[in-house]
Amino acid sequence: MIVRKFTPLLIVALALGACSEAASETEMQAENAAMADRVREANEAGLPLREVVPEAITYPDIESHDLLGRACSYAPGTSMGVRVIAREVDAYMKIDGEMVRFAADPGSRELPANSRTLYNSRQYALRLAIDEKIPGDETEDTMYGGTMWLYDQLDRVVYTGSGTVSCGG
């Protein structure tokens, strides 16, 4: 009779003993190293690169954001459609139908019309460069060759364009 009472307890005790075998120290280290590698890979992968194609800034955009006055306007290639308007304290670019405002980096190098080489927004960074003055330019504004780069939050180039820069105001 005593054997019958203790048989279920013996079975439960054996089952718990089998489940409670702890992994060895080397197994735990291997599991931890594998998990650390998976986390490192996930962190290094980052977000997928999303190329940006800025749209031309129209006159209604200029009026609604009060962008008239002293500035440099960047147009890529031979296009007359301005993609960036850079001023002393800010710059604007039209991305996905929205006018995106960039704040000037006051520590960056100054360009003509008191514009700057670096501007930052919440999602992007904008870098501008101006080359030599275009020869034979007799207009009121000064014309240069120039390049613009747009960087994402991971400091990857998502747009670059070279063309004409008109500075004045």
TrEMBL record:
Signal peptide: 1-24
Origin superkingdom: Bacteria
The keyword Signal belongs to this UniProt entry's keyword annotation: yes
Keyword field: Signal
PROSITE patterns: PROKAR_LIPOPROTEIN (PS51257)
Protein name per UniProt: Lipoprotein
Species the sequence originates in: Aurantiacibacter atlanticus
Lineage of producing organism: Bacteria, Pseudomonadati, Pseudomonadota, Alphaproteobacteria, Sphingomonadales
